[in-house]
Write a structure and sequence with these properties.
The structure is a single chain. The chain is mainly α. The chain contains 8 helices and no strands. α1 (4-20) runs antiparallel to α2 and α5 packs parallel to α7 (177-192). The termini are far apart.
């Protein structure tokens, strides 16, 4: 049975090729004069995105077997599309971003936690989902995304432990460096999108 990281690794070639060649979210590489995109590189990106599009589930999610319908994997795949300039109602793969967004927003809980399955360390997925929501909100100003994003950020802030970190569950207890990095990336993206993020939360995380 595959772990969540094995699930991610299955799509890593497609995701990483796109993100490695990425420019600011929502801006196609061809629109940037300082980024060299060769025909071979463009072909690789298109193949990677085409693969991601082909494996998206009917409900907009990504992931299979035990870790199917995973908000973290879904968010990473959608970020790969966005890195090539595809957004809801924009671009060849815009509909895939929109379907992924619908899936993530549907699983934004009242508590702020974004998770379709909370039994396998949901803070990883929550961090990636919050990052995705922040990038979407920063480019679309979608009101429904803003509401989910605000609650997601509040949950991250509220669950930071005394050392300044986070672990697998949304409670302020132990800390793990990789989970902590996920939350810091999400908070940075949220701040960049215009939301208020407590400075002390960031300071405690990086100190």
């Amino acid at each position: 049975m595959l772990t969540v990281f094995q699930q991610v690794r299955r799509a890593v070639p497609a995701i990483c090729v796109t993100l490695a060649c990425s420019v600011p979210i929502g801006v196609r590489a061809e629109e940037r004069n300082d980024v060299e995109i060769t025909p071979a590189l463009r072909e690789s990106v298109q193949k990677g995105l085409g693969y991601l599009a082909s494996i998206q589930a009917d409900d907009g999610s990504y992931g299979t077997q035990r870790y199917g319908r995973h908000v973290g994997i879904t968010s990473l795949a959608c970020l790969a599309f966005m890195a090539d300039g595809h957004l809801p109602q924009r671009g060849e793969f815009g509909r895939h971003v929109e379907r992924g967004l619908d899936f993530v927003v549907r699983h934004a809980q009242e508590s702020g936690l974004v998770a379709a399955d909370t039994s396998h360390g949901p803070m990883y997925g929550h961090g990636f989902a919050t990052l995705f929501l922040a990038e979407i909100y920063g480019t679309t100003q979608d009101v429904r995304v803003r509401e989910a994003l605000i609650k997601a950020v509040r949950l991250i802030v509220a669950t930071q432990n005394h050392e300044g970190g986070w672990r697998y569950q949304p409670v302020p207890q132990q800390a793990d460096i990789s989970v902590t990095i996920c939350q810091v990336m999400a908070l940075r993206a949220a701040r960049n999108s215009g939301l208020s993020v407590p400075r002390e939360t960031i300071d405690r995380a990086i100190s």
